[in-house]
Amino acid sequence: MNERTQFNFALRWEIEAGSGKQPVRRKLSVVVRIIAVVFAVIILASPWVWQQKLALDLGRIEASIQSYNEVAAVMAENDRLRSLITDQRSFLELGTRGSISNPAVIRSQIGGLLPGDAQVTSFLLQADNRVQLQLILPESVNIRSLENIFIDSGRFESFDIQTISLNDRGQTLNLALKLKP
What we know:
With 181 residues, the chain is α+β, with helices and mostly antiparallel strands.
């Protein structure tokens, strides 16, 4: 028996004490790491975390789009003004082209052609030189003679009776006249 036995109890006790604590520390650090990973997974998997992230992303995107909204508003105003300019130009061209005469002059010419007791209740001069006219005649009038009066005046090229209403007191006529160019 050549076994050597060491009787240094202090050294033995220190070796046993040190070797016993190290596995407990390793076990404790592994458990702490596992708990930290599980906690991190739970937090990252929570819907409110994703909702907050999406809200932040949405805020950033809206901030970047805000400048485009201002440009879109300016472009819409530009389009509106261009259409207004186009409308005004077309109106000015109608006036300078001479296709539409002075409505007051035309109304006075029509009034001179009508019988003396006739009343004009509606007068509309359209862009294509058509005149819509509503008359009230207190007495019955020969429509053919009224047509001849308008055509023979030299100012109108067509005479169209749209409606005739006969009342006890007279007639109501809706006429469409075409002015000569």
